[in-house]
Amino acid sequence: MSATVNSYLHVATLLRLLAVLLFVLAPHFARLPGWETAAVLAVIGWRAWVAQRHFTMPSKWIRGVLALAAFVAVHLSYGRINGQHAGVALLVVMAALKLTEMDQRRDVMVMVFLMYFVCTTHFLFSQELWTLVYLLLAAIAITTVLIESNHAGETLPLNVTLRRGGSLVAQALPLMLVMFVLFPRVPGPLWGLPSDAGASRSGLSDRMSPGDIASLILSDDPAFRVRFDGEAPAQNQLYWRGPVFWDFDGREWSAGGPVATAPYPVQLQGTAIGYEVTLEPHRAMWLFALDAIDQSQLPPASLIAADGRLLAEKPVRERQLYRAVSHPSYLAQPELPPLHRRLALRLPRALNPKTVALAQQWRSEGKDDAAIVDAALGMFRNELFFYTLKPPLLESTSPVDMFLFETRRGFCEHYASAFTSLMRAAGIPARVVTGYQGGSRNAVGNYYTVRQSDAHAWSEVWLPARGWLRVDPTAAVAPNRVEKDLESALGAGEALPFALRRSGSALFAQLSARWDWVNAQWNRWVLAYGPDLQKDLLGRFGLEGWRDLMLAMIVALSAVTGVFGFIALRRALPARLEDEPLRHWRAATARLARDGLIQKSQEGPQQFVARVIEQRPELASQLHALLKAYLAARYIGDRSATPVLADQARQFRPRRIKPVD
Amino acid sequence: MRIRPTLSVTPEALNLDSRDPFLARLAMILFHPLKVLRRRINAYVASRVTRQPGPVAIPRHRIYIVPTRFGYGYGVLLLVMLLGAMNYSNSMAFALTFLLMGLGLLGMHHTHGNLLSLRLRAGKVAPVFAGEEARFELWLENPSPTTRYTIALGWPDAPPAAYLDVPAQGHVAGHLPLAAAQRGWLRAPRFAVATEFPLGLLHAWTWIELDMNTVVYPTPAAEGRTPPVAAGDSGHTASHRAGVDEFVGLRRYAPGDTPRTIHWKSFAKLDTPLVKHFGETIASERIFNFDALTGLATEDRLSQLCRWVLDAEAAREPYVLALPQLTLGPALGEAHQHACLRALALHGTST
User: pLDDT digit string (tens) for A388-408?
Assistant: First the structure.
């Protein structure tokens, strides 16, 4: 079966294909292991070289060995051949190997399909705004190759195929929009996702040791964006609660704590603050909210853990949009269950003896819980403690002792860790809370962007009758960190990386605010567009349930394709004749052609009319009038005859002799 | 690209149970639903094709369109991409999938439009000898302002014979070769005009039957046999000096003409002399008589006569063809040869 228009593959077509393949693969190269990028580039280069020399393709055996080698190499690099990263690596190398057996146009079609698919896999890793540009350019480029491969004979000029491909993609855009909005979305996943699914992102971890947050803080990536319903709370009230840590091994904090599903009774007081969060995916379960969240208005598919964390039911792999309501004044867990108390007091006492001794000294001075908290904060505030991103390493078996009594230089995790240890040593239930503090307001869109650089750690202590209270020891050392931002909190000699500097030229600030706003809109409306948002949005137009959506989509699709179909039809119809009399003449005589009376190419109008009248005498008078007007308008150049001709032509409606289907 | 076959119902195909045609049809529908469907469609399409002199403009309602093999593959690809996008709840993957779906939908209109309102006109076709291939010339005219790329011409049941690009408001000729098995009239059957441009995912086609015919001459017999001498003739007239026997007419003087042949009567009135021209008597070997070829079947006789006509023409010697109802010549030249071969081709046929 000669499946394609021409089995011979032109060199020019092939070179274009290779260029497009290179473009489609380019974003993947950054993620692939070095050997694979090199191998793929080598195959592409080899194919281009071979094409110009018209060598034959390698034998089936060589190709089989290469494919097997690719499998083995991918397995060696990733330890598996499935999953997101290894799967994509395998797909890319196989696409390159397909080049070694490609010498026919049919193979180009297969290659085109492969390239469309490779293009999709890129979005598993990144869906930033620029990928939209990539999507469109790749679609145009691949479609251009597809068009080229369907043309028989000589390679078409590039501008012809590019224009065709571009206009096809441009026409497909409204259809894409219709389907994107109206195609009924289902909550994913349909089946299991590979364990490495989703974009790799920095974010808070489920454990905390000194230096963790300090390294996170160097990232300028947004963690989430928040839009408050009303007035935003003060900067020093913006504590976004994330992972809570109970277990301390003397150096590292980890989750521990009571069972997550136990209740966390909170009495809400004061005013409520409603807000909407667009959370960037971070692959963990936690969502971020201000303390204390109103548990009667939790976001869908979420729950409150026993220590007040807001948890999603599934790991956050895609951007998530949720609403929450919080009350800045609250009374959390006024009655502390004995188990919770015990967990909040555990401390490896032998490891940091000086710390324990200090706490016990305060206790023996007769201080109550509140006074001990004040004493500890007072120590941070009044003695020589420094807030720095570059603390000396705590290479000791008793790191808390070393920090509190020797180095005294640290970052938020050092202070939170030391403070919590002190409290526990003094018999006050305490825990470490990590999350984000603050956020920068975007004047363009009136929302807050919370970045990884806003990551923070603080403590919570439980006092009788007052419940869990937030205590931020960092605020005692560096009030600016909480009042303003990180940059102003750091000492003079310590500069932040350029990308993190907030102060700078006003123009740059303005531009970056705008760019952040555009990204926020992109995330909010495009990337977070899923079943929930679709339901909300389309519900406003009275479209409920998938039947409505399907119906609306089909109607809209038909309308749009109808418009473009009509345009395609118009372009296919004979061009409008510039010669107006001839146009009228043709229109009139076309009605005779239906009965087989066609003016022959060598036949003049007079001869034709004579011939017609022979067969259709009843048309004689009409035809004579028509002919007269036509001859006058076209050959004599009588301008006044043209409207007469137009009239005659319009009125010329000969009865049809035989019905045609 | 492939022109959709007509799929005439062959007895073998239906011979699942020859005792019960109803069961046979039922089995066919059950086991080959697509085949049965296509057969139906083809029968319907074929019933709408009428033989006409042309030119024919391809109307909207005569263009049929179905997905190609790659079109189905594309559908599967999009389904996989859609499921992937759903599984990962990946907005950009949705976007690309929907964009490609849109492309597929639009491709339908563009492929359809690539064929629409093309005009086809029958061109020339040279006579051929039986056993050769007749080449039917077809003119494709594109009255629209857009170029039509990769228009395929072909017979049903065969791969396309030609691919043509028809420029905007221009025309181009293509050829449909058809094996001429027998002498006589060769009627071009219905042919397909098809396209898969621009995306190759859909196959749009229409069937047209233009009134194109050509004469197929008999196959020339092998060389070797010499024409028999006509009865009653001495057989030696050919030895006479040719060119001096019969007065044929006057022609202009040319250097080398003997004064004896000059037509002196007209010389007085004209600047250049005229000479009397004498034709030769036809040799009895150059009278090709159908009836003289005894001992041969009709077709063999026609083949033999055909061979002699060709040989005589190659030797530039005038000849006569004598058929039972018809005698042609003596004469020489392309027109005479065609008349003779045509008479041989149509010998015994009603037309």
Answer: 877 777 777 788 888 888 888
Element housing A378 (H / E) = helix A369-382
- Select the more confidently predicted residue: B171 or A395: B171
Range of the domain at B38: 1-47
Q: Please indicate whether residue A412 is annotated as part of the active site.
A: yes
Cβ-contact B206, B189 below 8 angstroms = no
DSSP secondary structure letter of residue B226: P
B125 and B72 inside one domain: yes
Catalytic residue among A401, A472, A485, A516: A472
Domain boundaries, chain A: 11-151, 207-495, 580-651
* B77 falls within a domain: yes
Tokens of A96: 């390159």
- Domain identity same for B160 and B300: no
Q: Which residues, including other chains, have CB under 8 Å from residue B344's CB and lie 6 or more apart?
A: B183, B217, B218, B302, B305, B306, B309, B321, B323
CA distance B109 to chain A (A): 5
Take residue A206 and report the two structure tokens written for it.
Answer: 């489920």
Q: Could you tell me where the DSSP H helices lie in chain B?
A: 11-14, 21-31, 33-47, 69-88, 91-115, 264-267, 298-314, 334-345
Q: Are B321 and B190 in contact (CB under 8 A)?
A: no
Tokens of A123: 């979005």
Cis preceding-peptide flag for B177 (omega within 30 of 0): no
Contact B283, B315 (CB under 8 A): no
In a domain? residue B221: no
Contacts for A618 with CB less than 8 Å, ≥ 6 apart: none
Asked if residues A652 and A593 have their Cβ atoms less than 8 Å apart, the reply is no
| Same-domain check for residues B207 and B82 | yes
Rounded to whole angstroms, the Cα distance separating A376 from B75 reads 68
Q: Determine whether A624 is an active site residue.
A: no
Check whether residue B117 and residue B170 sit in a common domain: yes
Contact B133, B186 (CB under 8 A): no
| B160 and B301, same domain (yes or no) | no
Categorize the per-residue pLDDT at B245 as very low, low, confident or very high, splitting at 50, 70 and 90: low
Cα dist from B132 to A2, A37, A158, A603, B300, whole Å = 24, 57, 41, 36, 17
Residue A384 to residue A281: CA distance in whole angstroms? 39
Partners of B100 on chain A (C-beta within 8 Å) are 116, 139, 172
| B152 contacts in chain A (CB < 8 Å) | 5, 152
A472 included as an active-site residue: yes
Is residue B254 domain-resident? no
Per-residue pLDDT at B231: 46
DSSP string, A569-635: HHHHSPPPPS-HHHHHHHHHHHHHHTTT----TT--HHHHHHHHHHH-GGGHHHHHHHHHHHIIIII
Which residues does chain B have within 8 Å of residue A191's beta carbon, measured at their own beta carbons? 87
In this structure, the number of other CB atoms found within 10 A of the CB of residue A421 comes to 29
